[in-house]
Amino acid sequence: xxxxxxxxxxxxxxxxxxxxxxxxxxxxxxxxxxxxxxxxxxxxxxxxxxxxxxxxxxxxxxxxxxxxxxxxxxxxxxxxxxxxxxxxxxxxxxxxxxxxxxxxxxxxxxxxxxxxxxxxxxxxxxxxxxxxxxxxxxxxxxxxxxxxxxxxxxxxxxxxxxxxxxxxxxxxxxxxxxxxxxxxxxxxxxxxxxxxxxxxxxxxxxxxxxxxxxxxxxxxxxxxxxxxxxxxxxxxxxxxxxxxxxxxxxxxxxxxxxxxxxxxxxxxxxxxxxxxxxxxxxxxxxxxxxxxxxxxxxxxxxxxxxxxxxxxxxxxxxxxxxxxxxxxxxxxxxxxxxxxxxxxxxxxxxxxxxxxxxxxxxxxxxxxxxxxxxxxxxxxxxxxxxxxxxxxxxxxxxxxxxxxxxxxxxxxxxxxxxxxxxxxxxxxxxxxxxxxxxxxxxxxxxxxxxxxxxxxxxxxxxxxxxxxxxxxxxxxxxxxxxxxxxxxxxxxxxxxxxxxxxxxxxxxxxxxxxxxxxxxxxxxxxxxxxxxxxxxxxxxxxxxxxxxxxxxxxxxxxxxxxxxxxxxxxxxxxxxxxxxxxxxxxxxxxxxxxxxxxxxxxxxxxxxxxxxxxxxxxxxxxxxxxxxxxxxxxxxxxxxxxxxxxxxxxxxxxxxxxxxxxxxxxxxxxxxxxxxxxxxxxxxxxxxxxxxxxxxxxxxxxxxxxxxxxxxxxxxxxxxxxxxxxxxxxxxxxxxxxxxxxxxxxxxxxxxxxxxxxxxxxxxxxxxxxxxxxxxxxxxxxxxxxxxxxxxxxxxxxxxxxxxxxxxxxxxxxxxxxxxxxxxxxxxxxxxxxxxxxxxxxxxxxxxxxxxxxxxxxxxxxxxxxxxxxxxxxxxxxxxxxxxxxxxxxxxxxxxxxxxxxxxxxxxxxxxxxxxxxxxxxxxxxxxxxxxxxxxxxxxxxxxxxxxxxxxxxxxxxxxxxxxxxxxxxxxxxxxxxxxxxxxxxxxxxxxxxxxxxxxxxxxxxxxxxxxxxxxxxxxxxxxxxxxxxxxxxxxxxxxxxxxxxxxxxxxxxxxxxxxxxxxxxxxxxxxxxxxxxxxxxxxxxxxxxxxxxxxxxxxxxxxxxxxxxxxxxxxxxxxxxxxxxxxxxxxxxxxxxxxxxxxxxxxxxxxxxxxxxxxxxxxxxxxxxxxxxxxxxxxxxxxxxxxxxxxxxxxxxxxxxxxxxxxxxxxxxxxxxxxxxxxxxxxxxxxxxxxxxxxxxxxxxxxxxxxxxxxxxxxxxxxxxxxxxxxxxxxxxxxxxxxxxxxxxxxxxxxxxxxxxxxxxxxxxxxxxxxxxxxxxxxxxxxxxxxxxxxxxxxxxxxxxxxxxxxxxxxxxxxxxxxxxxxxxxxxxxxxxxxxxxxxxxxxxxxxxxxxxxxxxxxxxxxxxxxxxxxxxxxxxxxxxxxxxxxxxxxxxxxxxxxxxxxxxxxxxxxxxxxxxxxxxxxxxxxxxxxxxxxxxxxxxxxxxxxxxxxxxxxxxxxxxxxxxxxxxx
Length: 1515
Prior knowledge:
Strand order of the largest sheet: 2-3-4-1-5
Distance between the termini: 92 Å
Radius of gyration: 46 Å
Structural class: alpha+beta
Shape: globular
């Protein structure tokens, strides 16, 4: 019936072709859309322009869009349309234009809004139907003329219905709507007549005889009556009834999908009879009155009323009969439900097949689109994407190193793979799916199959397969850069976003930064799409660092929530059920966005069936390839036995098949019998028993002659060595690299490993040889599994062999600048990885990376010790060059530390310790490039340690430190942490000593690796300064307190915020974790201490008894007591369990806050620090035990309780003996007050935080005493920040002034102290030698200039000024001294002191003032040509680029060459004279470097200073 109705519509819409003005016919109705004329039907509609004009006045946005859609559609149709259809459409458009005008005029009325909305919906429906008829399908021919005529007709009828509905609604009584402009009754009747005319044309072919004739007859009568009637009201009534009839008649044409069943045809036939009767009655009326107009008003009305009633009766009869048909049909529908269900099931099966086929087509189209997009990258785009570095390309599922056979066999894992596919395509399913399974259950094979499937469907966004075998796949460091790179290649809309942010800094940043910048932000701004975007990550348990995977999982859940609004992202993860992974999936945040599929819990019958298919398929393939055709193999019993032995482990099946089908041996039947005979079928299956038997069988078969002669024994040892090497390497090597590492002959590894293809992935060089599955090395190393048989691998023995080989290769291969990079920095090298690959052989690079790791796993031997000593004395610096290029200096630090602790050779230990200290301190500068080892950092090794090392010969072409006031041995500071941008208020060690946390004025907390100084996390969330930090007892959490009045709990593992604890009403000055449990105490200026539960985030209790602000809190070692330091000069102690106050200690000097409190390790003593004193308390006896002399901000005990340490306001730390209270050490290192400190758990290190914005890690392993005791003069003299520096005119002397009000004069050549000049009362700000070198002039913040006699060191003249002396200098001719200083004045309105700069000069003859003041121009004239004049010196000289800390060779202000990068981060001032360069630091250390003329070509004696009187200086 549907087909009949479609044919009917096609027939009734056929129209004769229109002729052109020239008389020729238009183009064929079947002409292709692409070939049609550019003229559109819009130009043929006289009212089209009227509608466009009215569009500008429409106020209702939805109606405006609807009308615009009409206009766009009309402008898109450029085929010739039948004039009748166009005429009707033109009329509707005119009517619509007038309605739009009316609505615009009454826009403010409430009724207008409703009318506009209804009209808009009706128009949208009409336009949509028209567009559907002309939309080009994905398959099949484009639309033709007939399609466009159908579309325009439907649009016309749709507009007609919309306008009619509007008229009905608008005629309802509505006082809010003004009277609308009425159409004349003749016009209304004309519209009905026109509609009936088109309906008559469209009824051709309707399978109801007589309907068209009846409508035609009615049309003629209505036309005649229209001419006779002069009563408008009567005509309106008749017209309304005709409109009702018209709607019934034309309904089949509006619904092109309506099916003309028998009942409906019968109703149409009945309606036809009624219309014929009405027509007959009307014809009588016409015949009686033809040609005259004699009917009166009453007769006229009566006749028309009769026609109207007849029409109503016909319509009512039609509708009632339809209702009865429906009601009768309901019973039939009910009785047919069961049969319909059966039919539906059959139809669903058919639909499923169709959907599958359509899906394949869609996926194929998507794949083609993806291929086109990914293969048509411009050269610029390709280069930009390849610049996303570093990344791990080998982590892709389809990388060449991935085995091509490692996909699920067809018809295996069907249900599981189907479930995964449905999960991905279901937008309502959780975005994360974790496939968890025991070793050998086939997780990676499934993951690779899933990735390939979604890649084929164009759903795959990225894949990352972890592996312990490869450095770039064994951590999470490159996960997100790699994923971002793949996303950018696959999704063009993401490309620009990712390329823009994927800088090397971001790609090497913390994991959270990588995820946010490379993945989350680009996905949030990409084009939204509903199709799934699948990311596959396999073998999370293969990540070498558990904490990294934990952090990644914690970060993924909130990240997915951020992007799900724009992208239907799906993460498919696989791993073993390791505790650290399983626990994260049980966290509430992860549970909400994930589901878990446990692979080893899948019904065993399903797994067995899959293994059966796998085994059957491969055994048949083996038989076909190797055995004769007539041989039937294996037997059903053999196959069943083999499947039973697998016991659900796919790895057993895979290894067995690989072993049996080894093409080189061609003995599948015998090998299968060997495997089956090795199994005790009477023994109950235990974990891995059959797998272990299988591995034993494979190894036994590899050496069939093991007991026959010396050759067999040699082969056995050879196999053990190569197997031990392969399974213990930290990443896999190719066969050739293995041969070179093991010092074997070429082409010997592959033949030796030939029998092991079933357990090893062996490919031709340069593909690395890999273990097929981790269960194999587990078997070899575990003596309980491999037993005492010859192939057991002893890890200690084999690690020793590998360590020796690594040291041997480095000792024979490494040399200075072997990569040929010269003095270039890493930033100047295009591709460091390629340089390493070309210049360093694979086995040597492996040795450089991992020698210390193998050394750590073995025991000391004389042979290993001797090889290590050679390495230390001759190759250590060359090794650092390689790791610098390899960007692994943090690994080098750990390697050096491990090796120095391992070695028993004292000489090697000293060298390793020196190198360890050197690299810790100068890591940032060394990382710039290999040449900086020699040019920028090595010269600054303390001279004692340098002279005792074998490295001095490497400094022949480097600058030399010829003078320094620093120690000739390493000082106590190991390294400085420089990540904060402002003062550091708080520091803390984790309980295991591995992590450091620091809180800063910059509102952040940074978590550091205490071993290397590497930044791990930056915790951002506080809105004001962070004043306190502490670690939980298990180290998993960090608490922080801030001026924003909140306490925050963070995860130290992931860096994410756990809780925000709010309850204080003022700044939180202190936080402390209990050493037991999860209690956190916080102290605030609001005079409260609050105890919190760090797990739940709930408040436990508020401690009372306080009368003033709290500045410090601490728990006793057993967690039973809490102490708090207050502004009321007291320390209050509470019982933790009950919250009751147990004691109050009072003894601080008035006007002092107690900034720090600490319990001794035994809990019997308490130390407190205020601004004015340190007090040691016996808190149980409420007595003061000691009052050491100090001005501290913080205090702590050593872990053994014998020593106490405090941070001072002058940048020092001081230590005391607890028993005697005597000072035992003072250590300088900060440029400002030390306001926080913490001691490592083993007492070997201290971390301090300072107002200078740095945290310093101090080495206390040699004890807490100063090297010379408390009376050591070098330790007693405080080295304060250097503020000015100058050379004497002959370059032999150097003077510098410091913040401790003194000046120091040195003899450079003799490296001897000449004078310490003390007479100023404040910081010395400027200093200069007279031209003849006899005098030194110094200026200070004490507003004085002092003249000193260089020979005697005595002051000879004091010049008093009105403000701080900023700069002074002698004129070039030596006649004048000129100084600039601050002059105070008062603001005219504010009365605030305002400072300006003035200049004065004095005669050097008498040092009398020459004139009151100089202008700036006069001062410049006097100092013309002097170093302070601001103009670049003439000739060649040394200068510091203050922005980058490079020492440069310059000529008349222009850089000629960069010579070295100064490693000190706190340089304050510098100057040069000829080839000598001097600088001072915030720590008070001064250096003089000699850039020898022979090496650096500086022969002039030009003097330079970076402190000038005018402008910003030569830089």
